[in-house]
Fold this protein.
Amino acid sequence: MTDLIHGVYTEGEKIADTKAPKVPVAGMWEKRKMDAALVNPANRRKLSVIIVGTGLAGGAAAATLGEAGYHVKSFCYQDSPRRAHSIAAQGGINAAKNYKEDGDSVYRLFYDTVKGGDYRSRETNVYRLAEVSANIIDQCVAQGVPFAREYGGLLDNRSFGGVQVSRTFYARGQTGQQLLIGAYQALERQVAAGTVEMFTRHEMLELIVEDGRARGIIARDLVTGEIQTHLADAVVLASGGYGNVFFLSTNAMGSNVTANWRAHRKGAYFGNPCYTQIHPTCIPVSGDHQSKLTLMSESLRNDGRIWVPKKREDCEKDPRTIPEADRDYYLERIYPAFGNLVPRDIASRQAKNMCDEGRGVGPMVGDFRRGVYLDFADAIKRLGQKAVEEKYGNLFDMYARITGENPYETPMRIYPAVHYTMGGLWVDYDLQSTIPGLFVTGEANFSDHGANRLGASALMQGLADGYFVLPNTIRDYLAKGPFPKVSEDAPAVVEARTAVEERTKRLLAIKGERSVDSFHKELGNIMWEYCGMERTEAGLLKAIDLIRGLRAEFWRNVKILGSADTLNQSLEKAGRVADFLELGELMCIDALHRAESCGGHFRAESQTEDGEALRHDDQFLYVAAWEFGDGESDPNQPGSTMGAPVLHKEDLVYEAIELKQRSYK
Amino acid sequence: MATSTKSDPKNMDLTLRIWRQDGPSDRGHLQTYEVSDISPDMSFLEMLDVLNEQLNAKGEEPIAFDSDCREGICGMCGLMISGHAHGPEKTTTCQLHMRSFKDGDTITVEPWRADAFPIIKDLVVDRSSFDRIIQAGGFISVNTGSAPEANAAPVPKQKADRAFQSAECIGCGACVAACPNASAMLFMGAKVTHLGELPQGQPERWARVVSMVSQHDHEGFGGCTNTGACSVACPKGIPQDVISTLNKDLRTAMRQGG
Amino acid sequence: MATTTLSAPTARKTTIALKLLMAVTGAFFVLYVLLHMYGNLKVLAGQEAFDTYAHHLRTFGEPMLPYGGLLWIFRILLLGSLIGHAYAAFTLWSRAGSARKTKYAVLKTAASAQWMRWGGVAILLFVVWHLIHFTIVKPVINVDGPDAAAIKASPYTMVVASFQLWWMVLIYLLALAALGLHLAHGVFSAQQTLGFTQTPKARARAKGIGNLTAALVVVGFAIPPLSILFGLVK
Ligand SMILES: Cc1cc2nc3c(=O)[nH]c(=O)nc-3n(C[C@H](O)[C@H](O)[C@H](O)COP(=O)(O)OP(=O)(O)OC[C@H]3O[C@@H](n4cnc5c(N)ncnc54)[C@H](O)[C@@H]3O)c2cc1C
Ligand code: SF4
Ligand code: FES
């Protein structure tokens, strides 16, 4: 056995090839499509594909592959595919249409996305993303997605997330909903046509790998509790992000890492797990009962001014009584050029700094007041209440509903919250993981956003993957099939199935003292404290220890009532939390090993003199792809056998874009 | 059980009567619970979370209820709260906050009741009939990759706005729950109007409405009697006008021999 | 979950088609009720005018139509409408019943559906009584008033004799109240069903028309009996 680095991981071979065609990026996707083998329409029916997830990435792929004539089985844990968490996206979707003639282009979108990702994403994939972005808009409009329009009847755009061109398409504050309903309708059309079989309220709990290929999944019917085996020629995971490892996040209650984690345990590498995006404008926590956090669109920062009191004693006062001279508009002070519009990670970190200094506002949560003011008093004075209402009315209403305060009168309070996970299963140019036949799309993969995601680009990625990229690349794989039929009693299938049954049984048998939620909350606190906005070596090492202890306790002391053969929401949660307890450790290890600051990952040890993030391109210009470390079975953790993970580096090559340090000063 | 010491004078003690039903074949009953020290800043579902933690600690199985986004957009949540779908405010159950209630209140919580939404357990119902209505025709048939340039067909602002307003439906089913006839016309009207206002939706317009309405009836939803209870309950404020459009479209389809 | 999409859906078999039937037959009733009201108001013009009008209804169209022909055509149409209206109503009513077999323990929503249904039944019962009273049997109800022969000879005499009784007026007014409520919602509802209310403005207008029709009918029908009861018409 090789020596452990930092006592927690080992390093393996580099990833040599991402399978991108060896031509300049501009012609690469054309070439890949040209080279991909074709499948005769008559044969498609005989080829089956399992798609886990019905968000933008999964729904779009299922509809498209169904249309093409493949036999698709589609899964989601909600009661309808229309409820995938993509529905919650508010702001918009980017596309290089250049309708505004403001100098936008495929190249500029590509450049902005790579730069926004702090030069930690793969050029080839991002270029393709920018390239197909325009097609997405055409497709969605044809489906009837009601994007915002101008009086002339043409599509409207806005500028979003601090970029200088207007390339964001939107549908009021409900872009995600409208795009998802478009994909959902296309999906239901295929269900009616018989090409897609839909399994709602089904949760994937294991991946089946037979003969080195992904050949199916084990799923639990959440209503009857039945453990089912589903076999196919290829498996696609589009199961979304894992921000809920922090317990509190803007993700849906059910968002989880289980599908990804089970695949990871079966051999799929996990890319950059520690890259997490923390969004600066969320409604602060109001108390211990808090179950999730609500995002408010970033667009609020266009007109609102962010401040905290200069003096700690003022923190409890009515903000309106604090004179101008006693307010600290800290973003405007520190970043005079960008002011309140600095990127998400910077705005978030500074808010945390202010609160850590004891200058936060709002109710005490733990030892701190966790909130800063977002003040529209100036905007209302300048533009009039009516104009502000027109622009932000629905957001203000939402704020008022949740907090019971009127934002037209008192400044809003905001605080950062976990929002998006850039990390995910590692995939090559074809979106194929390290397990042949296992493809990963959308937020579930790691591919396009590097260390930080730009606003309005996750929707773009989900739909690009689902409608245009995956259907072309998976074709090349399927052309080699149909693969030999796998029988339900093949050893690999039985093994996967038994593992799920055992795990379920074991969870119910623990009959301990603590609820699943209490473990989840505790894990969330550890992650937020040590693997959140600012990370240190000592903190991460401590977190790894704490997580291991918590995981051991979980398997000893969790209390789950009810049975396995009916709807049992505690059991569902328990399975998800069990996987989060393993993922959390990997995230900390990844964060620990990356001793640089980049994008959403800020290591306190790596900053400039004035406290800004400092990248180390000489040491860390690579993707960290982690292989699951099969370790010794720990008798204290009967549910988990986690060994030290193995790091595989994929070097990042910048040919089309020149590397630069980000600066917003 | 309920202790009356409150950590904050604004907090509340409440009596809850909640529908418990083990499974589809169980008859079900209303069970009474007491909760105390409920903060007005909690959401209604967070209050139920608190109750569930208590039940779990006592060894009683927690109450099953649906929710996912808890932001009022996914349409997963939905409870009948003291006779109001999604409770007394015009919002979703997950966005209802406890400040809408008073100390000492008794709150009755029931699932959506409609035979087309069979109960799975406790407060969880099966709304897959909505998906089947969409399968029947709630889409525009366009295959991936065959779409024309997005700006090729301008849409007059007025039509775009009405389409958008109708497209805001989140498929929660509150309209059905509140309707004295358990009819899903508001849900269906919203979809028919959304697609029918757009140029892209024209080719399939008349066939769409006939198959959707037929599927609706086949699922066992009631017929509409224009009471408007749906619109009052709808968290997205979908107006009754969409039902008029639905009716008109069906009439046109009939004239065309559909 | 299996999908059970229908193979050959037709518009005619839908619940909306039933509603259309209800709307069209309802509209015909409204027309009839307004004509009827116009006739009733003739009571104010005195015995001769009223009796002539009643006679005229029967001779209208002669000799192309036989005596009472138009009235019979109207009656047949009305009967057909009644059957259609009631058929649609009862079918939808029973559908609604089976669409929610388990009722809510607590429910706070608009009661207008129940009003329409029970109100509709009440109106139907009243109409039966009304027909027996004024059209089919014409019994002597006011024993202190004119005899059977006088009643049969002059509709005016019959009407006036009946409404000199306070309780007759009361029954009549109660029926009117039911009719008013039925119309206020029904007239709006018909417009909604026919698709005339696709904007908030149109919907408000349709509601207005409903209320106005109801008010008009209630007032118009209430004037003659009240005038008789208070001795303004003798
Ligand atoms: C509040 C909010 C606002 C946002 N706003 C924007 C924005 O304005 N612009 C933008 O570009 N991006 C935005 N994002 C990000 C973006 O919405 C998501 O990254 C994106 O929609 C993810 O799509 P997806 O298809 O990958 O996954 P999801 O939409 O999350 O779908 C996951 C699917 O997987 C299924 N699933 C998961 N696990 C399992 C399992 N084990 N078994 C079976 N099924 C499973 C779920 O049922 C679901 O169908 C926002 C995100 C949030 C949370
Ligand atoms: S119309 Fe309104 S109440 Fe009905 S499903 Fe849609 S959003 Fe819910
Ligand atoms: S939980 Fe999504 S709308 Fe309430």
Remarks:
- The pocket of FE2/S2 (inorganic) cluster (ligand 3) is lined by residues B 67-70, 72-77, 92-94 (CB under 6 Å).
- Chain B touches chain A through 78 residues (CB under 8 Å).
- The domain at 12-120 of chain B is CATH 3.10.20.30 (Ubiquitin-like (UB roll)).
- Chain B has a mean pLDDT of 95.
